[in-house]
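Lab channel / #folding
Pinned by the channel admin:
"Please post every new chain as: sequence first, then the C-alpha coordinates as a reply. Keep commentary short and put observations after the output so the thread stays searchable."

First post following the new format, from NK:
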Amino acid sequence: MSESPSSWQILYTESAKSEIENLDGPIRKIIKRAIEEKLMVEPLKFGLPLRRSLFGFFKLRVGSYRIIYKIEKKEVIVLVVSVGHRKQIYKS
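Reply from TO:
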Protein backbone atom coordinates (compact mmCIF):
# COMPACT_ATOMS: atom_id res chain seq x y z
CA MET A 1 0.00 0.00 0.00
CA SER A 2 1.86 3.07 -1.20
CA GLU A 3 0.54 6.45 -0.23
CA SER A 4 1.60 9.77 -1.71
CA PRO A 5 3.88 11.94 0.47
CA SER A 6 2.20 13.69 3.39
CA SER A 7 -1.07 11.85 2.80
CA TRP A 8 -1.08 10.45 6.35
CA GLN A 9 -2.19 12.88 9.02
CA ILE A 10 -0.12 12.72 12.21
CA LEU A 11 -1.86 13.18 15.57
CA TYR A 12 -0.23 13.06 19.00
CA THR A 13 -1.54 12.06 22.40
CA GLU A 14 -0.89 14.63 25.13
CA SER A 15 1.66 12.31 26.72
CA ALA A 16 3.51 11.86 23.40
CA LYS A 17 3.65 15.66 22.94
CA SER A 18 5.12 16.00 26.42
CA GLU A 19 7.65 13.21 25.85
CA ILE A 20 8.85 14.85 22.63
CA GLU A 21 9.13 18.27 24.28
CA ASN A 22 11.25 16.77 27.09
CA LEU A 23 13.82 15.25 24.72
CA ASP A 24 17.19 16.92 24.17
CA GLY A 25 17.24 19.26 21.16
CA PRO A 26 19.26 17.09 18.75
CA ILE A 27 17.27 13.90 19.37
CA ARG A 28 14.00 15.88 19.21
CA LYS A 29 14.95 17.04 15.69
CA ILE A 30 15.83 13.48 14.65
CA ILE A 31 12.52 12.14 16.02
CA LYS A 32 10.51 14.87 14.26
CA ARG A 33 12.35 14.22 10.99
CA ALA A 34 11.64 10.47 11.25
CA ILE A 35 7.94 11.19 11.79
CA GLU A 36 7.81 13.55 8.81
CA GLU A 37 9.87 11.39 6.44
CA LYS A 38 8.58 7.96 7.41
CA LEU A 39 5.28 7.99 9.28
CA MET A 40 3.69 10.69 7.13
CA VAL A 41 4.70 8.82 3.98
CA GLU A 42 4.40 5.07 4.62
CA PRO A 43 3.83 4.11 8.27
CA LEU A 44 3.16 0.47 7.40
CA LYS A 45 6.43 0.11 5.49
CA PHE A 46 8.74 1.66 8.08
CA GLY A 47 7.18 0.43 11.33
CA LEU A 48 7.03 -3.00 12.88
CA PRO A 49 3.91 -4.40 14.56
CA LEU A 50 4.06 -4.94 18.30
CA ARG A 51 2.80 -7.99 20.16
CA ARG A 52 1.22 -9.01 23.44
CA SER A 53 -0.10 -6.08 25.48
CA LEU A 54 0.75 -3.65 22.65
CA PHE A 55 -0.94 -5.69 19.92
CA GLY A 56 -2.43 -3.30 17.34
CA PHE A 57 0.38 -0.76 17.78
CA PHE A 58 3.53 -0.27 15.74
CA LYS A 59 7.05 0.86 16.59
CA LEU A 60 9.49 2.92 14.60
CA ARG A 61 13.14 2.58 15.61
CA VAL A 62 15.09 5.83 15.61
CA GLY A 63 18.55 5.05 16.96
CA SER A 64 18.06 3.94 20.56
CA TYR A 65 14.64 5.65 20.72
CA ARG A 66 11.26 4.24 19.77
CA ILE A 67 8.10 5.87 18.48
CA ILE A 68 4.98 3.89 19.40
CA TYR A 69 2.00 4.59 17.17
CA LYS A 70 -1.34 3.31 15.98
CA ILE A 71 -2.63 3.40 12.40
CA GLU A 72 -6.23 4.31 11.57
CA LYS A 73 -6.38 3.20 7.93
CA LYS A 74 -9.92 4.38 7.17
CA GLU A 75 -9.19 7.91 8.40
CA VAL A 76 -5.59 7.87 7.04
CA ILE A 77 -4.31 8.87 10.48
CA VAL A 78 -1.20 7.92 12.42
CA LEU A 79 -1.64 8.44 16.16
CA VAL A 80 1.69 8.81 17.94
CA VAL A 81 1.12 7.37 21.41
CA SER A 82 4.57 7.42 23.02
CA VAL A 83 8.18 8.41 22.32
CA GLY A 84 11.14 7.38 24.46
CA HIS A 85 14.36 5.51 24.95
CA ARG A 86 14.14 1.81 24.17
CA LYS A 87 14.99 0.86 27.77
CA GLN A 88 12.03 2.82 29.14
CA ILE A 89 9.38 2.92 26.41
CA TYR A 90 7.82 -0.50 27.02
CA LYS A 91 7.63 -0.16 30.81
CA SER A 92 4.80 2.38 30.88
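NK: The CA atoms of residues 64 and 87 lie 8 Å apart.
TO: also worth noting, Residues 25-39 form the longest helix (15 residues).
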